Amino acid sequence: xxxxxxxxxxxxxxxxxAGPSVPGLAGSNSSATREPYLTHSAQDTGGGTVRLELxxxxxxxxxxxxxxxxxxxxxxxxxxxxxxxxxxAVLRLPGELVRYVPGSARKGDLLGQDGRDWMVxxxxxPGHEDVLTVGGSRLGAVPGVAVPAGSWELFSLxxxxxxxxxxxxxxEEATFIDARIRSVxxxxxxxxxxxxxxxxxxxxxxxxx
Length: 209
Prior knowledge:
The chain is mainly beta. The chain has one helix at 2-18; strands spanning 37-39, 49-55, 65-74, 84-92, 98-100, 106-107, 118-125, 128-138, 150-161, 166-178, 183-184, 188-189, 192-195.
């Protein structure tokens, strides 16, 4: 009986010292890695920027995936700032580290803040899984929306993790469009680096725009 009590106490001590288990990346040592996180450049604060953020995965996301959302920081100023109708952007992915999960795009609250419906689409270019095109638009002959102060979600996407490392995400040809289908230069899309192995690489990545 004394031996059983001793073994039980030893097992409890091991569990306490080990702490809660955190799933590691495939093929990596979980004890040598930390939770994934994003870093941005120092110039991405204030109104008029679109940045990426890590958010909790949805129930529909596959196991081992991560979800990122694009957030527009208001308020905006300049011509067209009160008439945002649509957006179109190309996101360059680190294809060797992550893969976009088809059908995982979800719309945010920005273009539908007045209760009108809108849609968002996302797809990789055929033969080029590192080039993801994302677009969103209000529906019908309606005016665009203004962007008050605060953070407004454009969309979110799920990505399947392929391996550890520092994964840079950069925007190309990213723009907003007004209700008259004209490009409006009211916001800057800022790139980020997703750190999948935080202890080895802490570099930053920024969209050159």
